[in-house]
Every structure is written in structure tokens, then in C-alpha cells.
Design brief:
The chain is about 40% helix and about 15% strand. By secondary structure, it is of the alpha/beta class. The protein has an eight-stranded parallel β-barrel, surrounded by eight helices. Strand 2, helix 3 and strand 3 form a beta-alpha-beta unit. The radius of gyration is 18 Å and the shape is globular.
Length: about 260
């Protein structure tokens, strides 16, 4: 039995639009609820949400029977972290703050088994093989791993064309909040200069044959990024959805 197919990666290869949402609660039950909503992909955020490997694993389990594909965002692109989340069953990872082609190449190597990569071979005891029930996993896993890298500062933007030449990088995600802050606008990604930089980056990513991605947290931003050509597009954050709905409901009935 080979490694499971990665439907999200296949959709990106086929050029299909993939609509997603961020998950920042770091709880399996909210992940399970989000998995009923109908998103193509959901981010388990290990960078800004209070996640550890156990909570990431539990959310992967919660989404296992959902049509929504789990994308695990690591806090940083360390090889040991990549190994751990892949062994926990993640097939798609998102790595923040990628600033060079050399860094991207090391991330690719971390996602692949030897001799091409450096991923540790201990799969028989892991969830990735369903605890040894996928005997051909090591021989077949590499093509099913999807690596998404985040370019979200001026250094990364300067290196974007070089990053796009790295084989094994499947998509590039532009981080509008970090980029706008690094450009001097303190998180305001609506500034025309920032929007121009984002549009140019998304266009270059697609032209290089990679999938361009981004997050919008309101309708105006989502529509703008969609029109710029984003292919894997996150349209909200679970914590913000709850906060906005709860505050709106309270305001409606208190007055």
C-alpha cells in the first residue's frame, strides 16, 4: 500500500482555486467544527497559535474524515520540526519567513527521504503510516508531500525569483501583515505600495509555475487578492470569526 494521495497538492498542480481558513484556537474540537464548514484547506497554525506537537496531532486526527485538507504552519523551518509534523501525519506544511533559495532548498531536503533528503526513517511507529499499516510509505511518500513557503519581508521579496527556481517548492504564500510592516506600514496591507508589491509577487509566482497563496481577513482584501491571481486563498481566521459573531450578537440584543 502506497502513501495516501495529497488532494490539495494535486489541485494546485491542476490550477484549481483552493479556498481556506486559518485555525488559531489550537483545539481539536474547534478543528473538527471547522472541518464541517466546507473549506478546501485549513491551516493548523503553529507560529502564532498556542500549538505543540500533541495539539497539532490531535487536530490532524480531527480533520482526518473531513473534506478539508490540513496545512500545518510551523513556527520556524527547522528540520526536526518538519520531521515531527510529517511523522504525525501532515502532508502539507507551510513555513514562515523564507528569505533565500538556500533556505528553501534545505526545507525541500527536510521533506524528503534519503538519498535526496534528510527526513528521518522511523515511519513504522508513526501516524503517517497508520502505525505500520502502510508498508510502502517510505518508498512513496516524497511526491505526496506539499511544501509551501512564506515570503513575507523585503529580504524574501528580493530573493523571490531565486526561491521560485527551487525544485520541490510547490507554492509560495505572501504574508501581507509582515510584509507591510517590514515596508514601514505597521501591518497596513491596504497601502497602495504594499498592494502593488503583493500583486507583482503573486504574478511572478504563477508565471514560475508555482501556486501563489495569501490570507485576507475581510471581503475587500479577499476579492483584491483573488483578482490578483491568488490560487490558495485563505478567507478568514477562526478566532476572528467567533469574536466578530459574538460581539455582533451581544450588540444586537443589548440595545
Amino acid at each position: 500500500m502506497p502513501a495516501p494521495k495529497n488532494p490539495f497538492k494535486e489541485a494546485l498542480i491542476q490550477g484549481e482555486m483552493q479556498i481556506g481558513c486559518w485555525m488559531s484556537f489550537a483545539e481539536a474540537i474547534t478543528a473538527e467544527i471547522m472541518g464541517t464548514a466546507g473549506f478546501d484547506w485549513l491551516v493548523i497554525d503553529g507560529e502564532h497559535a498556542p500549538n505543540d506537537i500533541r495539539s497539532i496531532r490531535d487536530q490532524l486526527i480531527a480533520l482526518a474524515n473531513s473534506r478539508s485538507h490540513a496545512v500545518v504552519r510551523l513556527p520556524i523551518g527547522e528540520t526536526w520540526m518538519i520531521k515531527t509534523v510529517l511523522d504525525a501525519g501532515a502532508q502539507t506544511i507551510l513555513v514562515p519567513m523564507v528569505e533565500s533559495a538556500d533556505q528553501a532548498r534545505e526545507l525541500v531536503r527536510a521533506c524528503q527521504y534519503p538519498p535526496k533528503g534528510v527526513r528521518g526513517v522511523g515511519a513504522a511507529a508513526t501516524r503517517a503510516t497508520m502505525y505500520g499499516t502502510i508498508p510502502a510509505y517510505v518508498a512513496t511518500a516524497d511526491p505526496e508531500i506539499c511544501l509551501l513557503v512564506q515570503v513575507e519581508n523585503l529580504a524574501g521579496m528580493a530573493a523571490l525569483d531565486d526561491i521560485l527556481q527551487v525544485e520541490g517548492v510547490d507554492g509560495v504564500f505572501i504574508g501581507p501583515a509582515d510584509l507591510s510592516t517590514d515596508m514601514g506600514y505597521k501591518g497596513d496591507s491596504t497601502v497602495p505600495e504594499v498592494r502593488t508589491a503583493i500583486a507583482d509577487a503573486l504574478k511572478r509566482i504563477r508565471a514560475a509555475g508555482k501556486a501563489p497563496g495569501i490570507l485576507g481577513t475581510n471581503d475587500e482584501a479577499v476579492e483584491a487578492y483573488r483578482d490578483m491571481g491568488a490560487q490558495f486563498l485563505a478567507v478568514g481566521i477562526d478566532v476572528m470569526l467567533l469574536a466578530q459573531a459574538a460581539r455582533g450578537l451581544a450588540a444586537k440584543w443589548r440595545h
